Fold this protein.
Amino acid sequence: MPRLKLTLAYVGTAFMGWQSQPGGHTVQDALEAALSRVCDERIRCKGAGRTDAGVHALGQTAHADVPGSRLHVDWRLALNSQLPRTVNVLDARVVPDSFDAQFCALGKSYTYALWPERSFCLPQRLPFVWKCGPLDVARLREAAALLEGRHDFASFMNRGTPVACTVRRLSRIEVSECPPLLPGLPGEIVLRFTADGFLKQMVRNLTGCLVLAAKGRLSLADVRGILEARDRTCAPETAPPTGLTLERVDYGEDGLGRDRRKDRHAAEHAAEDTTEDADGGEDGARKC
């Protein structure tokens, strides 16, 4: 059966996350239902990662095997006609059957949007931001710089996750100040995290720490100490899901990536990296 690579955007507010679950209203359920209606048979799909309830996506990736008799279909048009308005297929193309949305991913990028005001917020933006209050942006950038690089991020992974190695390479945390949407309103502050992989709720946990640093409630030494402690109990509470968006899954210039199962070390990494806000690692086998 031919394999499709699908790139999707969705508003996560009304969904119970990406991953299919019994009786659950999930993005995977919606996509599989649309694929099955178009193909007139049961079709399953696999995502690059599993976003949690309330988390959004601009560039989630999935793959699905479809009947060869349906190759003439305009998949983008056909699937979008069957999907709810809050889910949209941005791109659909046939790829080699060796492509795997999870294991071929080379890295991911997430954004987290902060609204630097507590007393009010544009209602249209409430599902997409954390209304966290005023922030010192210069201090926010200083704290973010401490977390970049290859580190053990155990302090920023939710406890109880079966992962053998908590080392990840966080190549960049970019802090952007957006222009106000209306005169007299503050502009959003957007954090962009790019890494070779993320632990469970790692981005939300990092964001919670950075916001406290930007409020002056944590010193830069505190941030460094939390990272070095490698203990979740030392870190602040998790930021809410509303501000988080899976922005992009990286597959390199050809869009196909590299199957990391061919390299044992990378394969163990890929098996555990089920994306920020996932339900944890799949096999816990990775060795640092």
